[in-house]
Structures are given as structure tokens and as C-alpha cells.
Amino acid sequence: MKNTGHSAMVRLFLTSYDDFKVRLRRRLGSEDLANDVLHETYLRVDRMEEPPNLAQPNAYLYRMALNIAADRREADARLLTGSEVEELLQVSDEALDPSRVVGGQKEIQSLLKALYELPARRRKIFIAARLEEAPHLEISQRFGISTRMVEKEIKAALGHCASRLERKVIQRFGPGAGKPS
């Protein structure tokens, strides 16, 4: 059975739902996106085991919705366009060259080995972030650590895997973005 903190957080979300919808629609410029984000926010609030003790829970819920919207837009930006799909469908037969397939399989094995060399928590955080595409806030709550610590764990895991695969890590966010780390 879920606790009263959980019930209070769900009630607050439902009470503020219309206000959140208006604010999100204005902020995001799309009623459909606002509806989707609110739905996802509700699901996350409902899944919370022990909501954090907050001075401003309303602001927390709104920020959660904005973070979900940012994650959604980021994911949408990674989707392929129709022309990109067409280009991929035009791939020549040499892309399936047996030596390339074997090389790819060896690289996957090396990556798996590198992942299993990581400490268990770092490996789980990395998998949650990169394979499950879980937002950093959700990962931090799952592991009871700060989002900054989640970022450090991911960076350390990337560095380890890159070194094992003899590759450079390109930093995509923050100062020095685009430079090898």
C-alpha cells in the first residue's frame, strides 16, 4: 500500500492539473505535447514510492513536467526523417560484408566485457541512461543520488568503455562540447 505522502502528491497533481495544462501549453506551444507530458508526469508521480519532502511541491511537479517535455523533445530530435530512412534503405550490399559483421561482433563483445568490468552501480546507471533512456532525475531517484552524481557515473562509464575500445569520448554537453575528453 502506498503511503500518505504519495497520496498527497497525487492529489496535489490532480488539483493543479488544469493550471499545469495551461502553463505547459503556453510554454511548449502545443496542446498535444502538453497533454502527453502531463500524462507521463502523472504516471511518474503515481509510481513514486516515497515522494521527497519539499517546500514547494507544486514547483517540483511543474519542473518534473518541464523535464519530461525536454526529454521528449530530445528523443524526437533523434528520430530519422523520411529522407534519412530512404538513404538507409538504399544501403549497398557491401555494408553487409562478412568481415565487417565479424568486426562488429567482436566490438560488441569488447563493449560487453568493458561494461562488466564496471562497478555494479555504475553499470546499472549507464544502462538505465543509455539503453533504457531513463531521464537523469529518474535515475537519481532510483539510486538515491544527485543528478550530478548520475552524470559523473555516466561520464566515468563512457570513459572506461571508450578506453577499452580504444576510442575517444566526445563530450556533447557543457563546456568544451564537441572536444574529446
Automatic annotation (TrEMBL):
**Pfam families linked:** Sigma70_r4_2 (PF08281)
Q: Which residues form the RNA polymerase sigma factor 70 region 4 type domain?
A: 109-161
One GO molecular function term of this record is: DNA binding
> What Gene3D superfamilies is this protein classified in?
1.10.1740.10, Winged helix-like DNA-binding domain superfamily/Winged helix DNA-binding domain
Classification via SUPFAM superfamilies: Sigma2 domain of RNA polymerase sigma factors (SSF88946), Sigma3 and sigma4 domains of RNA polymerase sigma factors (SSF88659)
- Taking the record's annotation, the residue ranges forming a coiled coil are none
Q: Please, one GO biological process term? A: DNA-templated transcription initiation
Domain of life of the native organism: Bacteria
Which keywords annotate this record? Sigma factor, Transcription, Transcription regulation
The record's section on PANTHER family has: RNA POLYMERASE ECF-TYPE SIGMA FACTO, RNA POLYMERASE SIGMA FACTOR FECI-RELATED
What family does this chain come from, according to its entry? Belongs to the sigma-70 factor family. ECF subfamily.
The protein's name: RNA polymerase sigma factor
Q: Which organism is it from?
A: Pseudomonas gessardii
Taxonomic lineage from the root: Bacteria, Pseudomonadati, Pseudomonadota, Gammaproteobacteria, Pseudomonadales
